[in-house]
Amino acid sequence: MIAYLKCMLIVAAATGLPPRVLPVIQAIEGGSVGTIHQDSNGTADLGVMQVNTIWIPALAARAGLTQAETEQHLVYDPCFNIAASALILRSYLAETDNALLPAIGDYHSHTPALNTAYAALAESKARELFTGP
Fold first, then answer.
1. What CA–CA distance (Å, rounded) separates 24 from 107?
2. For residue 57, is it within any domain?
3. What is the spatial distance between Cα 115 and Cα 68, in angstroms, rounded to a whole number?
4. What's the total number of domains in the chain?
């Protein structure tokens, strides 16, 4: 069972993402409602999709919310968090000329080795989630 699948499918359709991408990222990130993970660089990863706080100003501007409201929605509103994740992934797709695996890797890190490892993990997780035994 994939948590928040209905929301993920609606958001994927609205943002033009492949429908399996958001469940794969969530399975890797392992976040949940209320989750706040402090990072070593002073930022934090929030909620279901572990959206990094570095994105709060841009997401707040896009949503027409204050940064404090945006942070609360990212932590406690799973569909808001999933939609934010999709917008972030869309921005990375634009940077990578729609190359999906590098964009998924960028969701984790722009550092080449970390990007490649995350993309490989995403492929593995997709097989695990979406292929039969």
1. 12
2. yes
3. 30
4. 1
Residues 6+ apart with CB under 8 A from 38: 44
| pLDDT tens digit sequence for 44-89 | 999 999 999 999 999 999 999 999 999 999 999 999 999 999 999 9
Domain that holds residue 117: 5-126
Token pair belonging to 94: 């634009």
Radius of gyration for the chain, computed over Cα atoms and rounded to the nearest angstrom: 14
Please determine, for residue 15, whether its predicted confidence score (pLDDT) is greater than 80.
yes
The pTM for the full model equals: 0.95
> Does 48 fall in a domain?
yes
* Cα gap 71→59, rounded to integer Å: 9
Residue with tokens 């409602």: 33
Number of H helices, E strands in the chain: 7, 3
pLDDT in tens, 78-98: 999 999 999 999 999 999 999
**Would residue 108 count as lying in a domain?**
yes
Report yes or no on 133 lying in a domain: no
Taking each helix axis as running N to C, give the angle between helix 78-95 and helix 67-76, from 0 to 180 degrees, rounded to the nearest 10. 110
